[in-house]
Design goal:
The complex is a heterodimer of chains A (247) and B (78). Chain A contains 8 helices and 11 strands. Chain A is α/β, with parallel strands linked by helices. The relative contact order of chain A is 0.17. Chain B has a 3-stranded antiparallel beta sheet, covered by helices on one side. Chain B is elongated. The chains are: A alpha/beta (247), B alpha+beta (78).
């Protein structure tokens, strides 16, 4: 677990830079402030809030869908948010090749919006799991695969419904097209059911879209960004990969 | 007019809630239980004059109430 220095991370993303990231806030989003904070403090990037009832996105380079319990997770996690007014604009943004990062509930919203395949179901052990996990980077061609290649990330998860599910054909497509980004793993990077906290198929913790521009993951990189909080700063590398996906 | 829509996980998808109930019932002596599956029931009331009500409810169930990735649904007019 290395601790990136400010100097190693900030030059590319100076406060005077032109990066414009929109962070969509739904009723029940609760990891939005963490995203605002890490983007400003570690990367010098100002993030613009976008309210869920907006029907258009401002001119943006990328969008973050944060964690939380949008619309109380009613119907299914992410299902009502997927049909909120702003998601029509987010879908259009993705269709034009826009970069989107969906964290936890944001990942659930992405699958419910069909911007990513699969679904996120109740954890197989029935528990809300709040703990650190290790993640191995899978093989693929996306900017995330390249940036995190060979890295074992230690990130927190906090979810009751994070069991990634997709049928056999869908899983094969993800595997064949290099769309699996992160798998739950041992501290040394071994993958297997014994290191899988929630019963996800193929130990999947995060996937990318076919064009590599949309990443959805259950772990919370924004919660692992500051040595003052202890734990891990491995989230910085994931967020830096996100920033480099559109710069 | 009222419709009942029942949504549940596909047979091949693990239902942790159903499994928990089954295990508890088995412990209480209902060992003959093979499985328990939990479903969600929606009751939808439509204006009596709503045109193409059957199709409308089918669409609501298919596109919104059920997730085709993991769930199946049944619609019944009450």
């Amino acid at each position: 677990m290395s601790v990136p220095t400010a100097a190693s991370l900030t030059p590319k993303f100076s406060p005077s830079g032109k990066l414009r990231i929109g962070l969509v806030q739904f009723p029940g989003s609760n990891c939005d402030q963490d995203c605002f904070d890490v983007m400003a403090r570690h990367f010098g990037v100002k993030v613009a809030p976008v309210w869920h009832t907006q029907t258009e996105l401002p001119a943006l380079d990328a969008v973050i869908l944060p964690g939380g319990f949008s619309y109380g997770d009613y119907l299914r996690s992410g299902a009502l948010a997927a049909h909120s007014p702003i998601m029509i604009a987010v879908k259009a943004f993705v269709a034009k090749g826009g970069a989107v990062l969906g964290i936890c509930n944001g990942f659930q919203i992405l699958t419910e919006s069909h911007l990513l395949p699969g679904a996120l179901l109740r954890n197989s052990n029935r528990q809300f799991i709040c703990e650190y996990v290790h993640l191995a980077t899978a093989s693929g061609q996306s900017v995330y695969h390249q940036a995190l290649a060979g890295k074992i990330s230690r990130l927190p998860i906090a979810h009751g419904e994070g069991r990634f599910y997709i049928d056999v054909d869908g899983l094969k497509r993800l595997q064949d097209q290099g769309q699996i980004a992160l798998r739950y793993a041992s501290p040394t990077g071994l993958t297997g059911p014994e290191f899988n906290p929630n019963g996800a198929v193929d130990q999947i913790a995060g996937i990318v879209s076919a064009n590599g521009r949309v990443l959805g993951l259950m772990p919370h990189p924004e919660r692992a960004t500051d040595t003052l909080l202890g734990g891990s700063t491995d989230g910085l590398a994931v967020l830096e990969a996100f920033l480099s996906s559109f710069t | 007019m009222t419709y009942e829509i029942i949504v549940q996980l596909k047979a091949e998808v693990l239902d942790p809630e159903g499994r928990a109930i089954q295990e508890t019932l088995a412990r209480l002596g209902f060992g003959a239980l093979k499985s328990v599956n939990v479903a969600k029931r929606y009751s939808i009331e439509l204006d009596a004059k709503a045109p193409q009500a059957d199709e409308l409810v089918q669409r609501i169930a298919r596109e919104y109430l059920a997730n085709p990735v993991s769930e199946t649904f049944q619609v019944r007019k009450l």
